[in-house]
């Protein structure tokens, strides 16, 4: 369903191709290019700007600074903290984020931001700006984890066995914060910011489903972030190129013949076979992979019999594998299958393997676009100071933002939230995980700045022609 803003003045712009399936939304968003870039900058910068200086570094640098100032104002901080705590109290698992999604839509309604819903079950896609190109997407994930919160505080999870232990409650809040900052200046935006509220990042491949639903059609670039418990507040970290590994899961059932544990000769022991399989799987990385090509194979699940004196009929093992190149990833799939079936048969067992045990897709490598890395360094450097922009090593963790970054140029970064004076923050996925809410204005301002500055700096040449700008003046 589409939702339309009220009271936005329509211009005579032709419908945009992005919304061509629904010209009503094109009309409702048709603020057109009748507002010049100079005016946009005039709003953000207190002093008047001449047409020759509107792209000067000083002027551009002021945009993120002004966004952060605004994001730190008490009314915005209080609003964001309230949203974050409400979401934290009501955690929902992947594709079940109905209450979270409703909260997002309610806030977008209040801001007169049109959106599309549902996308991939619970996803919401909002639009701010002209409805025309360029289109810049900002993404937040909405899902919680199936675990019990152990932090005792006023806004503890009200749902037993579910917790926002990865900070996605903060991610949603920061994107809503950015929406507010951008919507307050929507008449000045020369293009469209696409707000992507995505379900099921932790499990289920929500990003892939959003992508298949067409959320990135005609979108030029996409940005995403994750809070980081072990990096200082006011800092960000990322890198150009590969950032997170590709990830897959596997589950194998190794079948033999059960029987009395004291009479092994009458059995075909799957526990023994599975143990050998696990040992052999360790050789894939240590003996077959290039030591300089980072890979992981971990068996994390081993379920066998239930009695001390009974050899079971079968054992189920499962785990995950990671790699940074497609070749290595495909090679691991092939070899994991060969090793499990081959080693099981050495012990007279049979094995069946499922590479999608929960029905979810393989997650590709997260690759940061190199040009966007420069853009990120510029914008975040002006917002936080260049000394607070940290370069990080790639990590073996996976992030389904990679589906987006595989489809169009994307950029993903960590946003620190640890303070010097504070006790060590527990890491993500810990039942003691907490969010330092001081991080919320930083995230909102970074999202808004990355998008707004991109619109200013990467306008199609035609809209930057001097003549057309002067006409508007
Ligand atoms: Zn997580
Ligand atoms: Zn997360």
Q: How is this structure best summarized?
A:
With 473 residues, the chain is α+β, with helices and mostly antiparallel strands. Helices cover 36% and strands 21% of the residues.
Helix content: 25-40%
The number of distinct helices, counting runs of at least 4 residues, comes to 13
Structural classification? alpha+beta
Q: Just name the CATH architecture of the largest domain.
A: 3-Layer(aba) Sandwich
- The rounded Rg comes to 25 Å
CATH domain topology of the largest domain: Aminopeptidase
Distance between the termini: 38 Å
CATH H level of the largest domain: which superfamily?
Answer: Zn peptidases
How many strand elements?
17
What is the averaged pLDDT score?
87
For the sheet with most strands, the description reads: 9 strands, mixed
- Strand arrangement across the biggest beta sheet: 1-2-3-5-4-6-17-7-16
Q: Could you tell me the strand content as a percent range?
A: 15-25%
Question: Which molecules are bound besides the chains?
Answer: zinc ion
- Outline the low-pLDDT stretches: 1-53, 462-473
Give a structural overview.
- Belongs to the peptidase M20 family.
- InterPro entries: Amidohydrolase, Bact_exopeptidase_dim_dom, ILR1-like_Hyd, Peptidase_M20, Peptidase_M20_dimer.
- This protein has 473 residues and is an alpha+beta fold.
- The protein folds into 2 domains: 2-243 and 365-472, 3-Layer(aba) Sandwich (Aminopeptidase); 246-354, Alpha-Beta Plaits (2-Layer Sandwich), CATH 3.30.70.360.
- The chain is built from 13 helices and 17 strands.
- It has helices at 23-28, 37-44, 57-71, 74-89, 98-110, 168-183, 206-212, 270-288, 326-346, 370-384, 401-407, 439-457, 466-472; strands at 2-3, 115-119, 123-129, 135-141, 192-198, 221-232, 236-238, 241-244, 246-255, 259-260, 295-303, 310-311, 314-323, 350-354, 366-368, 389-391, 410-418.
- Strands 1-2-3-5-4-6-17-7-16 form a 9-stranded mixed β-sheet, with helices on both faces. Strands 11-13-9-14 form a 4-stranded antiparallel β-sheet, covered by helices on one side.
- It is elongated, with a radius of gyration of 25 Å.
- The chain starts with a strand and ends with a helix.
- The relative contact order is 0.17.
- Residues 1-53 and 462-473 have low confidence and may be disordered.
- Bound molecules: zinc ion (2 copies).
- Residues 166, 168, 201, 226 line the site of one zinc ion.
């Amino acid at each position: 369903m589409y939702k339309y803003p009220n009271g936005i003045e329509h211009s005579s712009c032709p419908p945009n191709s992005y919304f061509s399936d629904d010209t009503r939304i094109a009309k409702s968003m048709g603020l057109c290019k009748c507002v010049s870039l100079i005016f946009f900058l005039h709003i953000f910068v207190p002093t008047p700007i001449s047409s020759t200086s509107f792209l000067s570094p000083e002027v551009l640098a002021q945009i993120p600074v002004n966004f952060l100032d605004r994001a730190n104002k008490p009314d915005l901080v209080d609003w964001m903290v309230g949203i974050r705590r409400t979401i934290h109290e009501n955690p929902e698992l992947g594709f079940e984020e109905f209450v979270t999604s409703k909260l997002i839509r309610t806030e977008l309604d209040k801001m007169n931001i049109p959106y599309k819903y549902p996308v991939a079950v619970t996803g919401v896609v909002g639009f701010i700006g002209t409805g025309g190109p360029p289109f810049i997407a900002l993404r937040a994930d909405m899902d919680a984890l199936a675990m019990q919160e152990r932090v005792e505080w006023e806004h503890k999870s009200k749902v037993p066995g579910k917790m926002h232990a990865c900070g996605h409650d903060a991610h949603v809040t920061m994107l809503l914060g950015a929406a507010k900052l951008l919507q307050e200046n929507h008449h000045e935006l020369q293009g469209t910011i696409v707000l992507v509220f995505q379900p099921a990042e932790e499990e289920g491949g929500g990003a892939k489903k959003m992508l298949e639903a067409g959320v990135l059609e005609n979108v030029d670039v996409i940005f995403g972030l994750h809070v980081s418990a072990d990096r200082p507040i006011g800092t960000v970290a990322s890198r150009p190129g590969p950032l997170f590994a590709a990830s897959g899961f596997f589950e194998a059932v190794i079948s033999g013949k059960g029987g009395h544990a004291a009479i092994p000769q009458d059995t075909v022991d799957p526990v023994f076979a599975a143990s050998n399989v696990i040992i052999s799987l360790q050789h894939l990385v240590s003996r077959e992979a290039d030591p300089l090509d980072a890979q992981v194979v971990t068996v994390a699940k081993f379920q066998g019999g239930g009695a001390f004196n009974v050899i079971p009929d079968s054992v189920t093992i499962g785990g995950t594998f990671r790699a940074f190149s497609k070749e290595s990833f495909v090679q691991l799939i092939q070899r994991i299958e060969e090793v499990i079936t081959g080693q099981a048969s050495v012990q007279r067992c049979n094995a069946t393997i499922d590479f999608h045990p929960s029905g979810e897709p393989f997650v590709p490598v997260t690759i940061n676009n190199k040009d966007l890395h420069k853009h990120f360094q510029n914008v975040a450097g002006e917002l936080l100071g260049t000394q607070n922009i940290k370069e990080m090593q790639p990590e073996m963790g996976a992030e389904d933002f990679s589906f987006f970054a595989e489809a169009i140029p994307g950029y993903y970064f960590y946003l620190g939230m640890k303070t010097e004076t504070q006790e060590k923050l527990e890491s993500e996925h810990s039942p003691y995980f907490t969010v330092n809410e001081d991080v919320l204005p930083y995230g909102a301002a970074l999202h808004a700045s990355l998008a707004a500055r991109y619109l200013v700096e990467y306008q199609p040449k035609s809209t930057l022609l001097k003549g057309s700008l002067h006409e508007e003046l």
